[in-house]
Structure prediction request, 78 residues.
Amino acid sequence: MHILRFDTDSMKTKKSKLEALQNINEADIIIGTKMITTGFNFDKIGLIGVMLIEQELQIAQYNSEEQVYTNLHQVLGR
Prediction:
């Protein structure tokens, strides 16, 4: 089983991000942060899980609900 980690901590350089994008179809499981939801379109994704979404709704910001909706909409579009 091949697990790919897709976040800013594991991809500090542009080269490492490009390598991960080239190898993403070989991964059985992809674990990522919000950075994976913006600007990418993956054809072979079968299941997406969003963890701890209710914590974002607890943030005391006037637009937290809008941000959660935007992020979920981006995820559903992938």
